[in-house]
């Protein structure tokens, strides 16, 4: 599989000719040139390509470079305006309406009429993606091989959690039992106190108890004068007195 990481990618825009160590894609507009690293090929130099690219061969590699856009020069700063291009560090990318949508790099902020400063774009490299994929695969493999220790760790965690739950349950049970015991003692004390109060309020029963009648008795009437007490007459004989014999006259 062919890698399109640097020295392949989008070329620099130089204000002036390309360096002797670079591959020139030709003039773009005004005094600007598209320049690729010397180890790459610029198919746009010999054929019409919408945007210049630096490829391993004369074949157009625009499609794979758009999938992971980056500069052919590792130190380049990437911009995008109707196509990706790169500038050197410290330069500013811009586009102009004369000619329309032409792009270039300026050592200072462009001040000419019709020139608009562009915002830099993040770059993507295949090696980074490959490294991330390899790291993900390695992580997946290490996860599968370490499944048993992971299970052991999980079991340990579960046992620890179970032990903690048992301790918590024992503590909770002790607290509930203590509260229930205190409540029972309070209930018994309350019962005996109430019962004692009820007993003290009941009237005494037995021989010395005064009977309580439901209705009052009428008052006794005093004796009147008409009611004379019975007198005992001498003629009345009593069983405890001896009977005297009367003397009889004898003729």
UniProtKB/TrEMBL annotation:
Location (main, coarse): membrane
User: Cross-referenced InterPro entries, in alphabetical order?
Assistant: Immunoregulatory_rcpt-like (IPR051694)
Entry's localization field: Membrane
The record's GO CC annotations read:
cell periphery; membrane
Give the keywords, sorted. Answer: Membrane, Transmembrane, Transmembrane helix
Chain intervals with Basic and acidic residues compositional bias: 227-251
Position of the signal peptide: none
Q: Which residue spans traverse the membrane?
A: 170-193
Please give the residue ranges the record annotates as the region Disordered. Answer: 128-167, 200-251
In the bilayer, the protein is annotated as: Single-pass membrane protein
Q: Does the keyword Transit peptide apply?
A: no
Q: Which PANTHER family match?
A: AXIAL BUDDING PATTERN PROTEIN 2-RELATED, PAIRED IMMUNOGLOBULIN-LIKE TYPE 2 RECEPTOR
Q: What is this protein called?
A: Mid2 domain-containing protein
